[in-house]
Design brief:
This protein is an all-alpha fold and about 300 residues long. The protein is built from 14 helices and 2 strands; from the N terminus they run βαβααααααααααααα.
Length: about 300
């Protein structure tokens, strides 16, 4: 068995004896007769310039994905005083701060939505997105032992980091129920859009996390640049302000930001407001392109992970 690259996708090359051989003979006798190894041979070949995503391989490794997700969740809350309540506490504290300064003092418009609900909707969404991107970008360094010792689809590592963030976001959602009841907000048919919107923002976080996880291995200063990029991204998205304050001549450029369409539609679905379908369609198209490009870039770079990490 020869190994050209330990990080390339394995291609199992089964060695089949001639058809004339009696198929009822024991496998061991056949292998000895044809001087074959007693165990199956797995040939690991060098990757080509244009790589398939091997979605089938990712699907067959889904149990490993679940394991990595739950491991990340357990490690995150191990020996913590509040445990999973931190998933609620972080956006809750930020909601109180923004509701006071931007709502009470600055009196920023919220399109008729109660201030705490307006800010919690945006902050909980952004907290999930930014944490998922950061954890995904740093995930390869947290799994150095796995990467350098055994083969498995490397895409599972940043995917598991984002998947663990989904669990945190689901916990943070529990606070929405009493808040909606307290402010007497009734739900409309648009609430059904929450699920596809959740999938969309998860795909955007996954695409961004995959891209930066690969770049982070090759360029170590990515870990210092990414927090600033996310902070700038937050302030150019309608997380803590309403899109109505953006001057009309800048709104088309503003909506090129995929998070603008996602956040606006997310609030509209929650509170039954008007939906800009053009903006959410643009966000979906951007996310699809980013996710595909990031996955291919990751596959191109993963052959050098074991050497660089």
């Amino acid at each position: 068995m020869s190994s050209t690259s330990l990080d390339s996708s394995p291609e199992v090359s089964p060695i089949v004896p001639p058809l004339s051989v009696n198929a009822t003979e024991p496998t061991t006798r056949l292998r000895r007769e044809y001087k074959l190894p007693l165990t199956p041979v797995v040939t690991i070949k060098a990757t080509k310039s244009w790589l398939p995503l091997n979605l089938h391989q990712l699907w067959t490794s889904r149990e490993l994905l679940y394991f990595l997700m739950w491991r990340d969740i357990k490690v995150r809350y191990k020996q913590t005083l509040l445990g999973a309540l931190w998933a609620i506490l972080q956006p809750l504290v930020m909601m109180i701060i923004f509701a006071f300064f931007f709502g009470k003092l600055a009196r920023m418009p919220t399109q008729g939505i109660p201030g705490p609900l307006f800010y919690y909707a945006g902050i909980s969404l952004w907290t999930f997105f930014s944490n998922s991107v950061m954890n995904g970008a740093n995930s390869l360094f947290g799994n150095t032992n796995l990467i350098t010792k055994i083969y498995f689809p490397r895409l599972l590592i940043p995917s598991a980091a984002v998947g663990a963030g989904v669990v945190d976001w689901a916990i943070a959602w529990l606070l929405f129920i009493p808040l909606l009841a307290y402010y007497g907000i009734g739900l409309t048919w648009k609430i059904i859009l929450i699920l596809p919107l959740s999938i969309l923002v998860t795909a955007l976080a996954l695409g961004t996390g995959i891209l930066f996880s690969a770049l982070n291995v090759k360029y170590r200063d990515i870990r210092y640049v990414l927090p600033f990029l996310l902070q700038a991204w937050m302030f150019t998205s309608p997380i803590i302000y309403d899109s109505s304050i953006v001057p009309p001549e800048w709104r088309r450029i503003f909506l090129l930001n995929p998070m603008s369409g996602i956040v606006n539609t997310y609030r509209a679905a929650l509170f039954g407001q008007w939906i800009n379908w053009w903006a959410i369609g643009l966000a979906a198209a951007f996310t699809l392109v980013l996710l595909s490009a990031s996955a291919y870039a990751f596959r191109r770079m993963e052959k050098s992970f074991a050497e660089l990490i």
